[in-house]
Inverse folding.
């Protein structure tokens, strides 16, 4: 038997099964909806999260507590290798110049300079945080780092050291 022979007998458009058309059809009477309950009613609209009369998960979970992720400082990593490739000797690296070079910063993003890669250029880098290795490599090349303070919600200013 070839596959080309099989598909000649198969119809491309199979007729849909008409439910509720008598006991002999196999899905008559309740038409596959069961006996009672919301699912058996016309126009039934299950709410999202509904699990059949059992208490929903959102109602069983505790509604109190504290999540520190809301207040956590999340930094975008900036590697020395990126600075070495995209900036010339003597340039000043700040948020505007990083955005112009395609670093993809959004408003409110925090940047931390990391020591991945080598730097051979004298740059002035203005970021929110810097690792010890990055600071050592940059200062060895003759550059400098300026820390930009982070504005907090309650008009408080926090600087990273």
């Amino acid at each position: 038997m070839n596959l080309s022979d099989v598909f000649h007998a198969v119809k491309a458009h199979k007729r849909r099964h008409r439910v509720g058309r008598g006991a002999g059809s196999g899905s008559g009477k309740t038409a596959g909806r069961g006996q009672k309950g919301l699912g058996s009613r016309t126009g039934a609209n299950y709410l999202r999260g509904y699990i059949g009369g059992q208490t929903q998960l959102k109602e069983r979970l505790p509604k109190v507590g504290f999540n520190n992720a809301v207040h956590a400082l999340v930094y975008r990593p900036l590697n020395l290798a990126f600075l070495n490739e995209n900036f010339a000797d003597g340039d000043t690296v700040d948020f505007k110049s990083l955005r112009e070079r395609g670093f993809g910063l959004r408003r409110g993003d925090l940047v931390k300079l990391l020591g991945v890669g080598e730097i051979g250029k004298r740059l002035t880098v203005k970021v929110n945080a810097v690792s010890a290795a990055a600071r050592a490599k940059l200062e060895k090349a003759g550059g400098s780092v300026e820390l930009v303070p982070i504005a907090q919600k309650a008009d408080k200013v926090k600087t990273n050291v």
Notes: Residues 4 and 128 are 67 Å apart (CA to CA).
